[in-house]
Amino acid sequence: MPMDATTKRRSPSLPWKTRMLLSLITTACDAACRKNGTVNRRLLNLVDFRAPPTKKSINGVTSHDVVVDPARNLWFRVYIPKQHAGEDLPVIVFFHGGGFVFLAPDVMAYDAVCRRFARKMPAVVVSVNYRLAPEHRYPSQHEDCFEVLKFLDDEENRSKSLPANANILRCFLVGDSAGGNLAHHVTQRACEFNFRRLKVVGVVAIQPFFGGENRTDSEIRLEGTPIVSVKRTDWTWKAFLPQGEEFNRDHPIINVSGPNAVDISKIDFPPTMVVVAGFDALRDWQMRYYEWLKNNGKEVYLYEYPTMCHAFYIFPELPESRQLFDQVKEFIRKVLESSNGGTSA
């Protein structure tokens, strides 16, 4: 078949403002990643602008921070849509991206993203601050995220942290990039854990960060597209994994559908939404993830954005970003309609 115009292009067509921001993010991250495998976080602080929690409503949403474990700086930010105070709301537990190395819930871009989720779904959003590599390697990030679920499952913790209309029986795990990796693995663990009340009823994996030892076509063909490249992902995986022969890119935490994949055929894995972009070098790994879930008999839905790049959805000026939020809202609505997760907290 002849290639269409999108296939022939080597980079997405984006507004100049979006391109500039993507270039700034990429340049800052590249400069902060040292050859010895450490991160220059002082340099990152020059462009890593933070947003405080807001007791006063901004665009209809308030926020506050909750500390889970100060010893490991484990905390989360809660976003509450005030205009829906009298409604029974699902809870979105959100895991941010950044290759397990960068970013946090209070970074301005993610603060804005979570406000949009809270307002548009609507939902109570819990955005998790997990430990970062290389200072804290795997499984620190996955342990931290699961610890937040256990924290919310405790009635006293929940009542002090979340509004009364937050229904943890209707919990969705949502993440982008590295957060999409976390959303899958934390859900898998949640399916095998006996929570007292909390129930994960759906997963939204937005351009999840997976990989493997062998290079895929999209990694080779899309080298040089914004944010993601083989060089950057190789550096990140090396910073993330512990030392040892068993820790290579075919470890199931990275190559989720690869030769060492966990058997999930008998796990009651919830409905999953997988988001893929045409100019994302990780695209083939994400497609393999979608096919793997489908082949294991899981309810999974694929949403493709052929003209977009990695992390496109954090830019509200893009029509595709607005479209994605609408699709997540519709996915949540459908899951809740068919779920027996309960209607009261």
UniProtKB/TrEMBL annotation:
This is Alpha/beta hydrolase fold-3 domain-containing protein. Residues 92-313 form the Alpha/beta hydrolase fold-3 domain. GO terms for molecular function: hydrolase activity. It comes from the Eukaryota. It holds the Pfam family Abhydrolase_3. Gene3D superfamilies: alpha/beta hydrolase (3.40.50.1820). InterPro entries: AB_hydrolase_3, AB_hydrolase_fold, Carboxylest/Gibb_receptor. PANTHER family: ALPHA_BETA HYDROLASE FOLD-3 DOMAIN-CONTAINING PROTEIN, ARYLACETAMIDE DEACETYLASE. Belongs to the 'GDXG' lipolytic enzyme family.
